[in-house]
Amino acid sequence: MIASQFLVLAAALFALGVYGLLVRRNAVLVLLSVELMLAAVNINLVVFEAMWRTSEAIGQVFSIFVLTVAAAEVGIGLAIILMIFRNRQSANVDELDLMRW
User: Fold this and answer.
1) What is the Cβ-side half-sphere exposure of residue 68, based on CA atoms within 13 angstroms?
2) Structural domains of the chain, with CATH
3) What is the pLDDT of residues 45-84, one digit of tens each?
4) 20: number of Cβ within 10 Å
5) Is the pTM of this model over 0.85?
6) Do the beta carbons of residue 96 and residue 27 sit within 8 Å?
């Protein structure tokens, strides 16, 4: 296994996620970009764990924790976005001053 190929893939996914986070204005697409960045982190965790061949599989365990947190983040984030969309009829990030005093 060549780890550099997976690390380049993870870097490309992370860069694509950062680009989507900075450029997109739709809140759902921003959440999707965050998910891309978390997928890149998961790839890195699994690759480094495979390189070091630990018996505890710490990289895979952390990867499962990241997946769990990502699932919770998507569930809560989509619920918040849906409630804002019901109130404002827009999911545009620039118009989300609803929680501002």
Assistant:
1) 6
2) 3-95 (1.10.287.3510)
3) 888 888 887 777 787 888 888 888 888 988 898 888 888 8
4) 19
5) no
6) yes
